[in-house]
Amino acid sequence: MKYQTRFVLKQSVIYSVGNILSKLSGVLLLPLYLTYISEEEFGVVALFETIFQFVLILSGWGVKSGFSRWYYEVKTKRERNRLFYTTYHFNAITSIMSVVVVGVALFFFSGVIFHYFISTRVLLYFCLGTLFRLLFDVPFYLLRLEQRAALQTKWFSLNIFLVLGFSYYLLKFRGMGLEGIYLGQLLGHLFTFLPMLPFIWRNMVRRFETALLKNMINYGLPLAISNILTTILTLSDRHIINQYQNLSEVAGYSMGYKVSNLIQMVVVASLITSYSNYYYKTMFTDENSAFFQRILRYFIVLLSVGGLGIVLFAPEIIYVVSMGSAFFQQSVTIVPVLILGLTFSGLRQLLTLPLNKHKKTRRISIILIASAVANITGNMLLVPYMGKMGAALSTVVAQLFALVWFYMEVKKREPLHFSTVSNMLLLIIWIALSFIAMQFLHLPLLAGWLLKILILMVFVVMLFFTGHIKKDELNEVKSIYRKIRNG
What we know:
Layout: H1 2-36, H2 39-58, H3 63-70, H4 77-114, H5 120-135, H6 137-145, H7 149-173, H8 177-202, H9 210-234, H10 236-244, H11 247-260, H12 262-282, H13 288-321, H14 326-329, H15 335-357, H16 361-386, H17 388-413, H18 420-438, H19 445-465, H20 473-485
């Protein structure tokens, strides 16, 4: 099990490099955006981000999930290449269809959606950039399944630097505003896709597996439908804020969400990306369940410590990326709430794996749809009166509801030792320390940092008392760290 832990954590560290670069690119672009576009236009960018997430899930009709699930059941390299060929071409066709549908909808209804004039060029650049991004999505899935984390991170890093470079040039030197943002994304995604064509070609055996595709659609379509509905409902918070409040309030919420989303990018996405591939590869072995429970405990530790760290230093992060804007400092108050929601979401994503193992995709769909309905209902009730804080609170309640339901479903099918008392205690301690930190936002810099470091150290000590960190594991962690560092 030490080898398994070391392998998963090493892969997670490599993936986290790409995810950190992704967030870093966003951090570097924010001052540029805030220099060359208005706060309202920043709100427009936040709404476009939700539309991209919707198109990303709409494309493929769940076949990408099926590709991940079936990849290790196919034994030979040639069969896997046929599986990749089938998945890639089906995804390309459905991606084109999805972009066309969304593009037409935006062309006719952008005024209603954004409450702001969006030029035809911006819409065209956004749609074409989205399409090229979707065209190298399945190859990224293949790299993850082959556990080639370093290569996937290199391609991901190339994409980030291209988007960053083109955006910087078009905004700073050409003064293109919103058009520059989306033309930069289009060029970055295009020049990532073109060099990947030889890799895509090498991994194809040109035979369309119709029967296997049907099985993948039957497996993945319920997930796709629920994910589409979930995306519409959960990402609707920014659109509901825009309808009941204004684009400036959307911008403030988006800033808080971007800072909070560091926990998703650095911890959740990295660990789940590396572990899910390993999980599917070993899901029918005797040790799979025990290792899953160990990863779950480590995951809780990483989420809680990382999340508290972001909460503590959110004022400094927002100050830097917003160039000292007083307007965006108001977003600090929603960060602890959003972090809590993203923590519940991350745990829920991990608990999805055992249900996928038993092919309970319809059950997953029901839970996700129900939680999404709860989220949008909460938004409709709270946003008119509480603005962005109402949206943040609604997210926490919906994600906790989904997490509890997922936990109960997994326990029916897998042995899962999950101490309710110790985890509730950990949650109470986390909320209490976050609340204390929020009371000292205006301390001088040095005194504030000393207090924050002290709070973080107290929380780590508490993890020993709650049983989330075991003393005999410290030496093992040190050993794993040394071996990861030494390659």
